[in-house]
């Protein structure tokens, strides 16, 4: 019997809700050329003390939601980034009562200072069931480096 078929209905619903929350996060930071990002939507997706952690550099960059929104909005307003998209390639979601953890392999691509870029990496999202529904507590990510693999089936193949 397939694992999803054995899963209690409330777990399936929670997984779907967490999946929608994660997709809403990716949608809020993604935007097409000529379109504005929806960074302010992030405030509704996170608990009040939520954090975003970019650990792709030399040291972790830890930001509350408002600081993250300000920094990304400034980059967009300055014309530096004119297209940005995050796509989830593969995920694993673990649930326990009112907490969930999602590990996602992603591809991030866009146009910065007129130059296209594309990076792959892993993002880990900690989620909490609240009276208002599922919310993000923290999001931490790192970019793939040479010789560093992603979660098994998220590796690019000759087919894409």
Task: Explain this structure.
This protein has 160 residues and is of the alpha+beta class. It has one domain: Nuclear Transport Factor 2, Chain: A (Roll), CATH 3.10.450.50. Helix content is 26%, strand content 44%. The protein has 4 helices and 6 strands; from the N terminus they run αααββαββββ. Strands 2-1-6-5-4-3 form a 6-stranded mixed beta sheet. The longest helix has 21 residues. It starts with a helix and ends in a 17-residue tail after the last strand. The mean pLDDT is 89.
Overall pLDDT level: 89
Give the structural class: alpha+beta
Q: How many alpha or pi helices?
A: 4
Rg measurement, Å: 16 Å
State the strand order across the main sheet: 2-1-6-5-4-3
- Per DSSP E runs of 2 or more residues, the count of β-strands stands at 6
Beta fraction = 35-45%
Helix content: 25-40%
Give the count of structural domains. 1
- Compute the separation of the termini in Å: 30 Å
In short:
With about 160 residues, the protein is an alpha+beta fold.
Provide the fold topology.
Layout: H1 3-6, H2 9-29, H3 42-45, E1 46-54, E2 61-64, H4 65-77, E3 81-96, E4 99-112, E5 115-130, E6 133-143
Task: Provide key terms for this protein.
alpha+beta, Nuclear Transport Factor 2, Chain: A, 160 residues, globular, 26% helix, 6-stranded mixed beta sheet
């Amino acid at each position: 019997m397939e694992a999803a078929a054995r899963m209690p209905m409330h777990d399936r619903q929670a997984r779907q809700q967490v999946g929608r929350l994660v997709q809403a996060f990716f949608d809020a930071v993604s935007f097409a050329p000529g379109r504005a990002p929806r960074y302010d939507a992030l405030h509704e997706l996170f608990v009040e003390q939520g954090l975003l952690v970019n650990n792709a550099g030399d040291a972790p960059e830890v930001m509350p939601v408002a600081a993250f929104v300000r920094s990304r909005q400034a980059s967009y307003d300055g014309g530096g980034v004119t297209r940005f998209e995050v796509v989830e390639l593969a995920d694993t979601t673990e649930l326990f009562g009112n907490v969930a953890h999602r590990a996602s392999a992603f591809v991030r691509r866009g146009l910065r200072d007129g130059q296209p870029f594309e990076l792959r990496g892993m993002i880990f999202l900690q989620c909490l069931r609240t009276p208002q529904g599922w919310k993000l507590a923290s999001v931490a990510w790192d970019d793939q480096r040479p010789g560093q693999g992603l979660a098994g089936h998220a590796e690019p193949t000759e087919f894409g």
